[in-house]
Amino acid sequence: MELIKRTQVLIVGLGPAGMTLSHLLNIFKVDNIIVDQSTQFSQVPRAHYISNRSMEIFRFCNNLDQEIYKYQQPLEFWRRITYLTHMNNNNTFGILGTKDEFGDYDVINGNYIDLDSQSRVANYDQSKLNGLLLSHLKNCMHTQIMLGTKWKGYEFISRNGSEKIISKLERIDPFFEFNIESDFVVGADGTKSQVRKAINKSFIGEKSLQKLLNINFISKDLANVCLELKCDVFDGYNERKMVPTTSMLYFILNPSLIGVMVLHNVKEGNFVIHVPLIDSKHNELDLKLFKQNFPELISQVCKKDINLNIKSIEMWNMSAQILESFIDDKTNRIVLIGDSAHRLPPSGGFGMNLGIQDSLNLAWRLARALKCTDKEYVKKMMNEYSMERVQHAKYACSNSVQNFYRSQFIPKTIGLNWEILNKVNNFIYMAEKYIPVKIVKDLRAIDNIYKFGIFRLSKLLKSPHKIERLRKHIQGCIHSREHSLSINFKGLDLAYAYNIGREDTKVSLIPPKSPFVYSPNTLVGMRIPHEYVYLRNLNKIFRISTTDIPIVFSNREPKSIILLFDKKR
C-alpha cells in the first residue's frame, strides 16, 4: 500500500462540523483533505435550528450566513411552537396553545431585529445545509474533497523529532486502498464514528432517554392545513381575535396519534414526525403495517382526508452522552468534533450547533500548532481544546435533557407520563431475570398505563368544560420556560466563558446565570459582545461587528486591539 497523498489536516466526515472546520482552515491557509464514505447526502431532514453563534461562524465562511437567510423559509412559517389535539379550524378545542418564540422582537420586512448578534438564528434543515456547505467548499483552494472513501485506521509515526499520522483509506468505486499522511486527523464522522472507535473512546451518560419512530413524509394537503390553521387569543384589550399558528414544531396530543411534528418546508410540504415508543414494545412494532396506517392517522388528526407520501420511516434511540476527552491521549494528534464526540437529545437544537462551535475552537488551534515546533505546547493546545469543549458539551447536554423533560410537562397534564412508563418498563426488564416471562407479560402493566392515558385524553376531548380548563392551564405552561419547550437559549449559546486560571489548573466553564438569557459581558474567556464598528478603506466605509475582528485580522494577526464599550455593555 503506497502513500499517495500528503496534507496538513485530514478530516473524516462530510457533515456540518467537518465541512465548517474545512472552511475555517482555509481562512488560515491550512491544507486539508476531507473524506466521507458516502457519495451523496441523505435527503431526510434532521437537525434544522441554527443558533446565533453558529450563524456568526458561517459568516466567517465566505458569508455563508447570507445564503442561508436567502434560502430558508420566511420567519412567519417557523416562529411558533403549537400544542394541539386536532388540526382543524372547525374543532373548538383543536389548538391547546401556541407559543411565539419571537414575540418579544421587532420584525421588519419579515426579519426579526437581534441586538445581541449581527447574525440572526435560522431554520434550515441539515440535508440542505450540507449541500450549501459542500458547494462553497468546492471553491476553497486549500481543501480537497474525496467522496466514496472510507477511513479504515491509522499508524502513528514519530521519528527525527517529527510526528505524523498515516491513515489507511479505502476507495469504494473503483476499489483500491491507499494511505494519506497528515499532521492531524479530525474525526467528524458522526455517532458511529470509526475514528472514535480506533482511539478507543467510549461515551458516558444516558444511553437511552426514549425510543422514537421517525417518519419523513411529503404532503401539500397538510402544509395547506398548517397555513390555514388559526388560534383564538385575547389581545391587550381583552378582545378575542384569530391569529395564525403556522409553526416550526407541532405537539400532537390526539388519541389516534401522539408525537412531535416538524414542519421543515411549507412550500414543499416536507414534514418529519417523531412518535415516542415504549421500550418494551418497540421491537414488536410492525413498520410495514404502521406505514400503511399512517396516512389514516394523520387524516384523523386533521378530521379530513390528507394525501401524503412517506419518504422514510426508521427507529431511533435518543441518548444524552459525551466523551470524557475529545483527543487521543497517546498521539495528541487525533481529535474528535461534532456527533463523534457528543450525542444530545434534539430538544433545544443544541447538537449540530455544538459541533459547528467545536470546529471554530479547533480551527485556530490547528493553524497555530502547525507553525509550532514545541511538542509540549502543541499538546497543551489540544488538551485545552478538549477540556473547553467537553465542559461546554456537558452544559449543553444537561440543558438539552432538561428541555426534553420540559417538553413532557404538558403531555403529563393529560395523563401521558412517559417517565412513569419507562420506569415501569425498567422494573419489568429487571423482573424478567427472576420471574417467568409469561407471568411478566401477563401483567400487561405498560399497556394498561398507556391505555389509561389515552382513555383519559379521549374523555377530556368529549368534555368542553374540562378541556377549556385544561387549555387555560396549558396556556400558562406555554409562557413558562420551565414547563414547555423553547428554542431560544441565548445564554447557553453566547454567554458562557472558559475559566482559564493558573497553568496547573484545568479549564472549567463559567455558565450564564440563565441558559435562556444573554447579558453582554467582557469577562476573559467569553465571546466578545456584539457592536458594530466602522473601518475606512480609501473612499469606502465598511461596517463590521466586533465579533468579526478575529477573522478580519486573521492574516495580519495584530498583537492587540483595544475596544471601549459604553456602560450598557
Biggest sheet strand order reads: 5-4-16-17-18-13-19-21
Proportion of helical residues: 25-40%
- Amino- and carboxy-terminal Cα gap: 59 Å
User: What's the CATH architecture name of the largest domain?
Assistant: 3-Layer(bba) Sandwich
CATH topology of the largest domain: FAD/NAD(P)-binding domain
Mean pLDDT, as a whole number?
A: 85
What would you report as the Rg, rounded to the nearest angstrom?
25 Å
Number of domains: 2
The DSSP helix count reads: 16
Tell me, what is the CATH class of the largest domain?
Answer: Alpha Beta
Shape: globular
CATH fourth-tier homologous superfamily of the largest domain: FAD/NAD(P)-binding domain
Strand content: 25-35%
What does the largest sheet look like?
8 strands, mixed
Catalogue the unreliable spans: 427-452
What does this structure look like?
- By secondary structure, the chain is α+β, with helices and mostly antiparallel strands.
- The chain folds into two domains: 3-73 and 112-205 and 320-406, FAD/NAD(P)-binding domain; 75-109 and 206-317, 2-Layer Sandwich (D-Amino Acid Oxidase, Chain A, domain 2), CATH 3.30.9.
- It is built from 16 helices and 25 strands.
- The chain has an eight-stranded mixed beta sheet, sandwiched between helices. Strands 1, 2, 9, 10, 11, 12 and 20 form a seven-stranded mixed beta sheet that branches. A two-stranded antiparallel ribbon has the order 3-8.
- A hairpin with a 4-residue loop joins strand 11 (162-171) and strand 12.
- Helix 1 (16-27) packs parallel to helix 4, helix 1 (16-27) packs parallel to helix 8 (350-369) and helix 8 (350-369) packs antiparallel against helix 9.
- The radius of gyration is 25 Å and the shape is globular.
- The termini are far apart.
